[in-house]
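Let us work through a complete example step by step.
Step 1: write down the sequence.
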Amino acid sequence: MNQIVKNFNNLIKKTIFKVQNKTNDNFKISSFNKYLITFVCSLFLYLFYLLIPTLYDKTWVQTNIESKIINEFKISLNNTSNISYRILPAPHFLIQDSKISTNNTAKLRPVAEIKNFKVFLKQGNFFDKEKIDIKKVIISNANFSLSKQEFKLFKETSNNKLSNKKIKINKSNIFLKNNLNEIITIIKINKAILFFDEKQKINIINLKSEIFNEPFTFNFKSKNNSNLDKMININAKSLKLSIFDESNNKKKIISGKNIITFLNSTMTTNYNINSGQLLFESDNTKIRNPKIYYNGKLSINPFDLNVDINLSNYKISKLLNVNSILTELIKTDLLFNNNISLNSTITAATNAKGEFFQNTKIHIIIIDGKINFDKTKFINDKIGSLELNNSNLFVENDKLILNTDIKINIENSNNLFSFLQTNKKSRKLIKNILINLNYDFLTKEIQFNDVKIDNNEVSDQLLNIIGGFNDNNFNNLNNSRRLLNKILNSYEG
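Step 2: predict the structure and record it as tokens.
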């Protein structure tokens, strides 16, 4: 290109000198005009050069671009007939209303519908169409549909070296689907970039996205080495949530560390993945001051989780709070899934003042879409214990209901009467109370179905008295005192 400019400049000079020789000595062209003429002519030549790809055969361009896209980016691009050439903002081919497919069991499966697919070209040699080279790709207004199979393909792709030519994605959506092709959630992509960094020798995938109207960033890096080192960083500032994960794969065993920071809590987990099973345990985890210890194992297909959690010096009343994270999770339909199996134990102890229970062991069991809390136990060191059995959590008429037997074992009646401030006339020796009830998590109501004291059925009058207390607030000691005193006053013994 520089040689063309030089030749053209020499031509201009010779022409000007000829004109000068034929005119009088007063006729002159300034140096500025010379350079201006040269610039304008060079610009026209450059624009003509950029327009050369418009002369290419459209069918050849379509076939050639599809071939280069699949060879360099491993993207199977289809429906590319609506293709045109543009020179602004830089020379590129614009493909409208195309699709990306993946080869699944010898059958093309569409995974994306793309409004605009731009293929930007290097400006090396447009005179020889066989030598045109792609500089980068920009995808805009696309809808990606991803299921388990596509995620498996993505994992395999991330293990291989990406192209050093960048893929950029703007204003698009990712539709996550289950095995029934049902949409689970939608992720909005504001900006994304994928490429292989030659200097660092790593694959890089960066996203600025939104999920459930919450913005977050996703950064992925993987080294193209024998250990397949990977690093993931997710940050949602509005939620004060960050997730960091790094792992490596040695001899088909994946080892890694996961750090989750949420509000003032940090959870650090070490894990190993072998033969489809994940083994994990906590490492220096802190939740707002108290420490939490946990360990367990997880199988993905089918989903089977066993986890033991030990909360040190944690207020048990927070676990009973109906607005807790655990309760909010139960309110969703996520756990009522036939493909999910869970066996979890949460152990907690506290010495905080004002806490009625000092120790607890909560069991959460999910099998075939059914949830129970059998053998869950709360202990008051001075009075006795409370235990759940024959429990069942279910949804009925848009209500989330827990039906359970509650057995209250009284180890020290005097301490109980002192705590309840029971008058002396109502103090009777009671060893245990068995209650069957329904508790509605949404309306916060309790329905007492049956009550036994020391294995004896209570009178209808006493049952009516108990039924009058439908306030669910487990942490309201005044209500609990009133209820138990009513029972003791009405119980004949």
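Step 3: interpret the result. The chain has three domains: 2-50, 51-211, 302-493.
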